[in-house]
Task: inverse folding
């Protein structure tokens, strides 16, 4: 599966996903955030940690998440929901892990009220640092109207 992260002017991006089980999907223009697209962070962290049943694994198996649209209209929505019903717990666990790794990488607080216990060990977090640095540098260097392509599953 390929994820094409299109960098747009005004700190925005959109994503095209092709080569997955099910039809191609796209995420229309979204705010990018302080460093890089959140879904790119997912690709980086899920790859670094070997998470195959997280967000991008579910997309590869045909899940369709809120905000994503079919590139060509069709009848795929229901089968995408079946993927999420079967693997939703793993997707949620991946979301927590990705958010934790990103918070640590950005130097944001990981302590205090409402934060909870770490979903990752310090060793797991350490495995995500260099890949996040590299992805952030690639994204930052990418000119507007250009594409960063990520292949899933990625070689580790």
Result:
């Amino acid at each position: 599966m390929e994820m094409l992260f299109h960098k747009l002017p005004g700190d925005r991006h959109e994503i095209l996903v092709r080569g997955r089980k099910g039809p191609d999907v796209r995420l229309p223009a979204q705010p990018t955030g302080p460093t890089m697209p959140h879904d790119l962070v997912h690709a980086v962290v899920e790859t670094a940690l070997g998470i195959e049943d997280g967000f991008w694994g579910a997309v590869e198996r045909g899940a369709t998440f809120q905000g994503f649209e079919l590139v060509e209209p069709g009848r795929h929505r229901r089968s995408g929901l079946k993927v999420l019903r079967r693997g939703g717990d793993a997707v949620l666990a991946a979301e927590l892990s990705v958010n934790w790794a990103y918070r640590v990488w950005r130097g944001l607080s990981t302590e205090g009220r409402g934060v909870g216990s770490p979903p990752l060990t310090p060793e797991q977090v350490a495995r995500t640092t260099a890949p996040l640095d590299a992805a952030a540098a690639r994204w930052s260097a990418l000119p507007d109207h250009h594409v960063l392509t990520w292949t899933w599953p990625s070689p580790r």
Summary: The mean pLDDT is 89. The two ends are 16 Å apart (CA to CA). The chain is about 45% helix and 20% strand. Residues 59 and 80 are 8 Å apart (CA to CA).
